[in-house]
Amino acid sequence: MNIIKVKDYEELSKKAAKIITGEINHNKHLVLGLATGSTPVGTYQELVKNYDNKLVTFKYTKAFFLDEYCLSHPRLFEYSNKYFLEYNFFSKINIEPENVFGFDQRIEESEKTIAQMDQHLAENPIDIMLLGIGQNGHIGYNEPGCSFESTTHLSKLSYKTRLANQRFFSFADEVPSYAITLGIKNILDAKKIILLASGSSKAEAIKELLSLKISTDFPASSLIHHPDVTIIIDEDACSLL
Ligand code: F6R
After folding, report:
1. Protein residue whose Cα sits closest to atom 3 of ligand 1
2. Which end of the chain has fewer CB atoms < 10 Å from its terminal CB, N or C?
């Protein structure tokens, strides 16, 4: 694992965006896998700046959603990962809509959307997977206990994850109980993985990850033997090391 320690969130975001920009300039047909949540927001902002400054084009880039909530009602669409990535990233760059692969948010459509995603993944292997990390070590919505062989699936969100994500919703009972996620195997199939962690709330998880103990109880530990993982962590996330 390549570990990059940076001072703060701003530096983390710039560093991640610089790596991704460099990779796209090297291969304009790059296929990205993209996390949502608060951690990568700065990276998306920096990538948008690079696009505005003509340092990168996304004309031929493809992008996969890493995961998506199963929403209990269409009125909650603005909490979806689809809305999040459209708002924070895709609407601000020149990616072609047909090059974006996401999920249906309706739980009753989960089987169909999972099968479609598996088909798209088989046709477009992911080059760079951008990840955050949950306080319980989840990556995507692969929660503790999830098999390292898992592929795209419906995941029941843990109490801890739902609690951590309450901040994105107006009411606690709106936080979805289920999400669809690429599985750990799909994540490990990516050629390169970049995991971001910022802030003291991630310090325990980073300590656990860097203890290099491999266990399904801590899904991020599946990354340890991947040949190309870069972890970018800021001072607060390193505070227990
Ligand atoms: C969401 C995802 C999750 C988040 C994790 C951390 O698409 O992949 O694994 O990365 O829950 O979320 P934040 O960044 O909000 O702390």
Report:
1. 140
2. C
